[in-house]
Design brief:
This protein has 149 residues and is of the alpha+beta class. The chain folds into two domains: 2-59, no CATH class; 70-142, MoeA, C-terminal, domain IV (Beta-clip). The chain contains three helices and eleven strands. It has helices at 2-7, 41-59, 111-116; strands spanning 12-15, 18-19, 24-29, 32-36, 70-74, 78-79, 84-94, 97-102, 119-123, 129-130, 138-142. The strands form three sheets. It has a five-stranded mixed barrel.
Length: 149
């Protein structure tokens, strides 16, 4: 019922095929911009970092909206459900290379895994299993924090 009342009062975009962080809503309600985030804390954080921060930056006049990613080598096997995934990770440097390991359980309500992380490991859509193979590199969004990689 609530969603149908939204749709009757303005333009809306719902969705997202990524994990965690869905659903995300963008739109206008009575000519006021509206952004809706999921209820789980990790989903809300990821949704903000991936979608909302760039939208706010664009509305604020910034031109460069692309977040730089750091290429990392995995230190452990990583499983995904095939959706684009942003997994909480700890990035460090070993022998001059950036390496990543997960912070543990990746449930969307697991705030402890987010507190431990200094990066979001990007697993592309349609990838369900990743191994620490030589030459395989994955992107990471480094988060602002006091932890050094």
């Amino acid at each position: 019922m609530f969603e149908s009342s939204w749709r009757n009062t303005g333009s809306w975009i719902f969705g997202g095929q990524h994990a965690p962080g869905k659903p995300i809503a963008f739109g206008h309600y009575q000519d006021i911009p509206f952004i809706g985030l999921p209820g789980n804390p990790v989903s809300a954080f990821v949704g903000f970092e991936v979608f909302i921060r760039p939208a706010i930056m664009k509305m604020s006049g910034y031109r460069n909206l692309i977040r730089t990613t750091t290429k990392v080598r995995l230190l452990e096997d990583v499983e995904s459900d095939g959706r684009e995934a942003y997994l909480r990770a700890i990035v460090s440097i070993e022998k001059g290379d950036f390496v990543a390991r997960l912070t543990g359980h990746q449930g969307s309500g697991n705030l402890y895994s987010l507190v431990q992380a200094n990066a979001l490991l990007l697993i592309p859509s349609r990838v369900k299993s990743c191994r620490p193979e030589p030459g395989w590199m994955f992107g990471c969004l480094m988060m602002l924090c006091n932890k050094k990689p």
